[in-house]
Amino acid sequence: MDDRGMIGLPVKLAVCLLVIGLMTPVVMDAMEDAETETSLMNLRTEAMVLADAIGDVYYGGVGSSVSLSLSVPPGQSIEAGGDGAEAYTLRLLDDGENVDVVYLDRPVVPVLNDTVSLSGVCDVVLRCTVLDGLYGVEIVP
């Protein structure tokens, strides 16, 4: 038996431990990023459900309405309505920070409310109406 086998095993073990030690933070960061993206994907899905419902009510004409139940993940919210161009968007917030915007462009329809914030499990009623000569959708939380 020669000495190469006895020296080679501890070196191999040391290299393996070094690789595992260096990869652990990288793997943990990747898992945290995946969790954050999954949460944002759920928020985007709820926003698209709301946007589609707004379009359906708009196409239904003045007087049409629909009741909708949304489940926005904890710590996140959807803001709709506002002044100017904000009336044509849904703003997605994560811990109060704007992370994405969904444009109400198919059809181009304004949300006639002042800013409405939707979070948690919430039921809303969407109504197509005319307010100050502007045809659009009103969100009633």
Can you put this structure into words, describing what you see?
The protein contains one helix and seven strands. By secondary structure, it is an alpha+beta fold. A four-stranded antiparallel β-sheet has the order 4-3-2-5, with helices on one face. Strands 1-6-7 form a three-stranded antiparallel β-sheet, with helices on one face. β6 (121-131) and β7 form a beta hairpin.
Give me the secondary-structure topology.
Blueprint: H1 4-60, E1 65-71, E2 76-80, E3 89-94, E4 97-103, E5 116-118, E6 121-131, E7 134-140
Antiparallel strand pairs: 1-6, 2-3, 2-5, 3-4, 6-7
Summary keywords:
141 residues; single chain; alpha+beta
Shape: rod-shaped
What is the number of helical segments per DSSP (H or I, 4+ residues)?
1
Helix content range: 40-55%
Oligomer: single chain
Q: Widest sheet: strand order?
A: 4-3-2-5
Strand content: 25-35%
Number of spatially distinct domains? 1
Category from helices, strands and their pairing: alpha+beta
The biggest sheet amounts to:
4 strands, antiparallel
- Following the backbone from N to C, one meets helices and strands in this order, namely HEEEEEEE
What is the end-to-end distance? 81 Å
Q: Which regions have little confidence, pLDDT < 50, spanning 5+ residues? A: none
Summarize the structure.
The chain has 141 residues and is of the alpha+beta class. 40% of the residues lie in helices and 33% in strands. It has one domain (4-140).
